[in-house]
Design a protein that fits this description.
The radius of gyration is 16 Å and the shape is globular. A four-stranded mixed beta sheet has the order 2-1-3-4. The two termini are 17 Å apart. The longest helix is centred in the N-terminal third of the chain and has 18 residues, at 57-74. The chain has 200 residues and is of the alpha+beta class. The chain has nine helices and four strands; from the N terminus they run βαβαααααααββα.
């Protein structure tokens, strides 16, 4: 039986930039299937009155510098501070939900983060999304229409409900069974836990 690790992420989460680019390769090397779960961390943060950086300039300065250091350490592209916050309608995340259902979520998530962090564009804007989708060989019109349709919106809510039920409060979060590992810096801990499941 293959081992699996759920990866809850939100396009708009700064630290998810690191995980989106490196988690899949780490999971593959560990023999673990990574299950991509786009969800609305904003919804949960509003419910929990948990805003990590908005209105906190000192903490935000630290966050950008920390991201820069970690990106350099892991070979993840980082070329200066991108626009923030982004995607008020969470459109990129609904496209990611469609991509997760159809099996192309990893490629989309990485392309969306390249659009945001390297091209300095909001990946939730229709024009940027069209460019990202066409670069992946997807029909932009089909994907944008699907992202606004009831089926994808319902799936996005369902993944957010699942995250809420598990006790997720931030992005990225890795989930092994009911064990939560919050933050890109907990990726290796999460993979170790999955691989040592029989010992727990």
């Amino acid at each position: 039986m293959s081992k699996a690790l759920e990866f809850f992420f939100f396009i708009g989460s700064t630290y998810s930039h690191l995980s989106v680019h490196r988690a899949e390769a780490h999971a593959r090397a560990a023999g673990v299937d990574l299950v991509w779960r786009p969800f609305s961390v904003r919804t949960l943060m509003r419910e929990q009155d948990n805003s990590p950086f908005a209105g906190k300039p000192v903490k935000m300065r630290y966050m950008w510098r920390d991201l820069e250091r970690r990106a350099a350490r892991f070979g993840v592209p980082f070329e200066g501070i991108p626009p923030y916050p982004i995607d008020p309608d969470e459109r990129a995340n609904r496209v990611a939900t469609l991509a997760a259902v159809e099996g192309w979520c990893p490629a989309f998530a990485r392309a969306a983060y390249r659009c945001w962090f390297l091209d300095k564009q909001d990946p939730g804007s229709p024009n940027a999304l069209r460019t990202v989708l066409e670069g992946l060989g997807q029909s932009a019109e089909r994907c944008l229409a699907a992202a606004d349709a009831d089926a994808v919106r319902s799936e996005y809510r369902a993944q957010t409900d699942r995250a809420r039920g598990l006790g997720v409060f931030g992005s990225p979060t890795f989930v092994a069974g009911r064990e939560l590992f919050w933050g890109d810096d907990r990726l290796d801990d999460a993979l170790d836990w999955v691989c040592d499941t029989d010992a727990h």
